[in-house]
Model the fold of this input.
Amino acid sequence: MHQSRVLSGMRPTGKLHFGHYHGVLANWLKLQEEYECFFFVADWHALTTDYASPKGIRENIRQMVLDWLSVGIDPKRATIFRQSSVREHAELFVLLSMITPLSWLERNPTYKEQLQEIRDKDLHTFGFLGYPVLQTADIIVYKADKVPVGIDQAPHLELSREITRRFNHFYGPVFPEPQTLLTASPKVLGTDGRKMSKSYNNAILLSDAPEVIEQKILHMMTDTARKRRTDAGNPDVCPLFITFHTLYSDEKTIEWVREGCTKATIGCTECKKSVIPKVIEMLGPIQKRRAEFEKDPELIESILNEGAKKASRVAADNMAEVRKAMGLE
Ligand code: TRP
Ligand code: SF4
Done:
């Protein structure tokens, strides 16, 4: 049996924001030091919801992978590739679809929720219902046994484990059951105080220019009860504080904010201005690397192709085993 192998994927949504950084990438950076890692661009997954408008996908992939590299995801340590370059994901998806009971998919809470919530797209498709099956194929085609995901993806992972058990029950113990590596991530709120998300239009991007960062933070929502400079505020309900001071200010500054906010001795603009340079400073090296990588128009493509070759070798070996176990070869 191989050592622990980590696998995770991200949909190609284009340029990434602070929510992605603290929710996913910071964790990947640690994992790539400790484990063999496979990180992939889930471009087929993007089609489960955006099948009607796939046009921007190429550029979105490029921008997202530029961000991965800029924060320090290292193609020498981790295998980075594009899902659609490794056709074995699709082959295993077909085989797993034969054994996955419809009832398991229909009772998936995320499925039911998204059908309700997403109104601008028709999600009554086979692909959307079956997306946890594709996700299972993504994982076990590499015999990955550790999958870092946020809490919202935990039900999918449970489904993956059930499908894997069912496969092993019918055809023999081919796959390890993938374990969830639940990642505790700090709360990252957007400029309007809701969860940071591209679709809410409230995101601060890792690639935003310093002036843009400054403007976005200056316009960020604060404790809404603090209407006037003379009103006392509460940092614990202030989106600016929760996200930026908590993550980027030292203890002394945090003390200064708590005191000044609750006693109304500082104003919100002053408070914001104290953290802006820290955020810009953190992004400095990341943006510098991005600028370097952007100079080479072939770079991303070639990294993804190299990664796909490595991933394909593993996937091909495992699929040979699967075909044999199922009597297909
Ligand atoms: N479904 C995940 C998301 O939307 C992306 C994903 C696809 C994934 N396949 C995966 C994550 C396999 C972990 C493992 O974020
Ligand atoms: Fe938020 Fe700072 Fe304003 Fe308090 S002073 S409400 S912590 S921005």
User: Anything to note?
Assistant: The chain has a mean pLDDT of 96. The two ends are 23 Å apart (CA to CA).
